[in-house]
Design a protein that fits this description.
Elements (H helix, E strand, L loop, with lengths): L27 H21 L5 H11 L7 H8 L8 H11 L3 E3 L5 E3 L1 H21 L5 H19 L9
Antiparallel strand pairs: 1-2
Helix pairs in contact: 1-5, 2-4, 2-5
Length: about 170
């Protein structure tokens, strides 16, 4: 039977020891999941040595970024999809207020304190160091190509890919 989408490659079981000539048969879900879990664990372990969590870093960056100071609700709405649950980001805001890395102004807008900005800058350096470890031996062109492939796979599954669904 000829494929309506293009070349079809049989799916093999996930195999961490797969040789290069076997990689085309490997399941993307396994490898993308393994990459996500491994890289996230590495980053979170590095941040833990500074007594900071990845969600705290997200909040510091969100409060720092943008045109104006965000409200608590705006930060929660913007970051909840990344979090491990619907209440995590609100808790993180509370943690950072308690730690005095954030402050709330009279208009209920969040701002970084000097200590918060210093922590954000240090975490940015750490994230850059972790990125260097993760990207070792990978050129920017290879990285861009990998992300383009992943972006296309997401679009294909979400129905935003080329031509219609043949099923």
């Amino acid at each position: 039977m000829e494929s309506l989408i293009g070349t079809t490659t049989d799916q093999a079981p996930a195999n961490p020891a797969a040789t290069d000539d076997m990689l085309a048969t490997q399941p993307i879900g396994y490898w993308s999941g393994l990459a996500h879990a491994t890289v996230t664990r590495h980053l979170r372990d590095a941040m833990a040595k500074l007594d900071v969590t990845q969600p705290q870093y997200w909040v510091l960056n969100r409060v720092n970024g943008g045109l104006g100071a965000p409200s608590r609700e705006e930060v929660v709405a913007r970051l909840t999809h990344l979090a491990d649950g619907p209440h995590e980001i609100a808790r993180v805001v509370d943690q950072l207020l308690h730690r005095e890395w954030l402050r709330i102004d009279d208009g209920q807008r969040l701002h970084l304190t000097d200590a918060g900005e210093a922590a954000r800058a240090r975490l940015r350096e750490l994230a850059t160091e972790v990125r260097a470890v993760v990207h070792k031996g990978i050129s920017d062109d290879e990285y861009v190509a990998a992300l383009k492939v992943l972006r296309t796979m997401v679009a294909n599954v979400e129905g935003n890919g080329a031509s219609g669904n043949p099923f």
